[in-house]
Specification:
157 residues, mainly alpha, two-stranded antiparallel ribbon, two-stranded antiparallel sheet, 4 strands, elongated
Length: 157
Amino acid sequence: MPQWNVDFSELSAFAEDLRNMKGFEKYAKATVREIGKVLVDYIKPFTPVETTKLLHGWDKRFVAVTKEANGYSIRIVNRVPYARAVNDGHISKNQYGGPYIVHDRIKIPNRPTYQIGSDTYYVYGHFFVEKGKEALIRTGKIESIVYAQLKEWWSTL
């Protein structure tokens, strides 16, 4: 098996120079926010529709971007309080806080192993956020957004 000796020091230096350039922070956040807005569009088709309340809970105005140690984080918001439970799955409880026997739960043939719980009291998640994220990654749209924002940023320098 061949071994490769690759020196990335110049590439790392170039990335550091980019970070220090005027306006980088502003355009980086704008790029990540734009990706978040597009992500909402990709999540919507996977959002389960029973009363349409969950589907109409998505709002692109509430895409928040925070700077992390190794990059940026996107936070998208669905204004419906139970959106996370529908996405991730949840234990079903009755009005007294005890277990509620679920007769009409969603059947998932190969449920993920991290969804631990009694089949009687557990409502499986739909994972619409994860499905939307995977669909967005497959399309290559992220690269086009980054390229468009980078082109706009270079034009201001």
